[in-house]
Amino acid sequence: MGILKKIRIIAFAALIGLASLLPCPAYSFELADGLGLLQISLEYGMIYVQLKHLDGSGRNYMLEILKKEHGVNNDQRANHQLSIIMASLQKTIMDSDPGLASKPYNFFVNQQKSFNAFCSLGHNISVNIGLFEALDYDEDETAFVVAHELAHGQNGDPFYNQIKRTSISALASLVTGGSGSTLDIIAMSVASGAASAKLVTLPAEKKADRKAFEYCANSGYNPGAGAALWQRVMEQIDKNPANFLLDIFSDHPGNESRRDLYAKDMTAWSRGAVSVDTKTGMIILNGKSIYAPVAYKGKSGLERAYLAAGRIAGVYHGIDSLVHAPQASFIGRQVFLGDVMILETAPGEDAGKISQAINVSAGKN
User: Fold this and answer.
1) Continuous segment of H or E residues that includes residue 6
2) What are the domain boundaries of the chain?
3) Interaxial angle between packed helices 76-96 and 202-218, expressed in degrees from 0 to 180 and rounded to the nearest 10
4) Mean pLDDT of each 10-residue bin along the chain, 365 residues long
5) N or C: which terminal CB in the chain sees fewer CB atoms within 10 Å?
6) What is the pTM of this model?
7) DSSP state, 307?
8) Neighbouring C-alpha atoms within 13 Å toward the C-beta of 137
């Protein structure tokens, strides 16, 4: 059997395997130059091989294409924060996946002003400068977004989704005489669609959210920051719709449902001790009302409630009964639970009363 015939058989098998991954409806092309089904299968085979290359040994080339497509932002604060977040989260991931050490994530801050981040082929992650600005550079909340993208990378979603997306668009370019090498065409197709969540399924998004909570909580980030993040998005999206890619958000779980799921994760992390009333913003600890924060320093009362409750959850995660619950205290406007500062009170909030309410909830007073 000739080598070309062998290649065609392999490529045809690849076509059959890839067919189940393609989005519906099916597409067809007019092959004026006489290319037949076997030739099409060869093109699919080439696409698959090139995607595998960009996801593996060619990942640094993919990184450079992504940087050219989306731009690189050199804001020192954003880049420093992203470096800290990536180091912390990758260390946590490697505890359960030591293989990550051989393929650590590349990352950069891009120039786009909208609220977004993405994970592309080759463990390449980018965060929009607009996301840092929308979150007012809150490290805990930003970490949850980055962790979500890392979860997609760990789940293999970028490669699977690019097979669905690129096999049609790149094949069309190749068949109709697209300029540039096959690798260039495919890499540019991947880069241009990297920030779009099209073809990402809702189950994949929810799975990534669950892993994001696990990564962040185990890395020492505020367990309430996921709920706080989506509370903030809900409040901002109506005020500044231009800052949010609404066509992308429409393919994701609802913002409110994401907030509430993260809030449930926070409560579970606290061993059921702490929760937040979504209507009033009241923090509930051990079945007793503590207080409802007011808006302060650019954060709404409800966003502050999730962040304060999250810090309490972090403390309660480490104890096995109320007997071991640490004493709450305050210094000036800062409230502590043991040696953990759980909140800075806003003007009009009484740090002493809040500390007392926390202690009462644990039977300390």
Assistant:
1) helix 3-19
2) 3-67+159-192
3) 90
4) 45 46 41 50 74 94 96 98 98 95 97 94 96 96 97 93 69 57 79 67 84 98 97 86 54 79 98 97 97 97 98 96 92 97 97 97 86
5) N
6) 0.85
7) H
8) 9
